[in-house]
Design a protein that fits this description.
By secondary structure, this protein is an alpha+beta fold. Helices cover about 25% and strands about 30% of the residues. It has helices at about 5-10, 30-45, 50-55, 175-185, 190-205, and strands at about 15-25, 60-65, 80-85, 95-105, 115-125, 145-150, 155-165.
Length: about 210
Amino acid sequence: MNTLTMTELIPEQISGKKVDLSHTAELATQEEAAACFARARMRMLDPGTWHELSGALSAEFILVPQTGTPPHQWAQTHDHIKIDIPGPGPSSGKGYDWVLIELIKDETDAIAPSERVGMRLSPCSDPTGKDTDTAHFFTGQASSTFVITRNGNKVVAQYHGRNEMPNIKTTRTVDNIRNAIVASGALASLSEMQWMSLIKGFLKNE
């Protein structure tokens, strides 16, 4: 099993905004913590549940398997996620923001002293169309990384945003204006509220 490193999952911060969020659950036993981790891992790899976990005012997330891959529920590397945030979406994404699942690293071992799983997302163009503009309010240099770790009877869910900058240099003026407006809210910590709700949702009891 390859060792997962944080530097492999989380890109270097070069420019724009940086976000680091964390939520911890401490369980009575390692067995309970392993069950919590397994639940959190399943939720992280099922973007269709993120809206419910984050709350009624959050965005909706729809998993789109990579071309040629049969439909599946659990996220895989090279899949895409289309995001329906409240309000108008970018025309380049047919009304949706899009991200690519760049990397998933899974070190699940319920009987080991520790285990970890991580997933990194990055803005991208709409894979179902011909438009090459990044269909997202952040540029393609941005990234969002989720990491869930269990050490003994403690489980930690983390979110790491890197290089978050408004995507205002597309070929569509209307998208540039929309992206500037949405990104300004995200940069003002509105998106952090959703991500914090989501990582708490990963760890909540059933």
